[in-house]
User: Fold this.
Amino acid sequence: MYIVISILYITIKSLSIQNRIFYSVDLVTVFIFYMILYLRLSYALMFAILMGFSKELFSIGILGIIPLSYLISSAIIKVSSQFLDICSIPGRISTVSFAEMGKELIYILFILLYDFQCGAFLSIFKYLLLKALITGIVSVFIIPLLEKISRLLNERISQDSA
Assistant:
């Protein structure tokens, strides 16, 4: 279910960024946060790799950077969940924002390794900071929605098996 939703999201996002319809919010990071929080870590890591490679299908870049950045994002979520209260709203916002910021910084650092002509780093950093904050705020609304969907699916499965 998460993979289908994420592939649809990545497709819509790539089309909307080309047409500049809406601001970019990374729902894949929010799904990874949810999977680490409520499911197994191995599911979250596999999801991160699959979504990274599917995102690379729609972009032109160096193969493997996006999955690696999602894996680092997963590690940031796992480590920061030990220090922050991820059940509270500020903890969720800060954890998802840290993960998104780390993911984007790793992505930019790898691009800078291969292309040294990126001069507007400060303006990119401001954009990434705003994107990370918006993704963290949006995660507060999406996580309860995912919890409710998961609860409804579990109830449906238990009713069908009985």
In short: The chain has six helices and no strands. The helical segments are 2-19, 27-38, 41-57, 65-83, 89-114, 121-161. The chain has a mean pLDDT of 81. The longest helix spans residues 121-161.
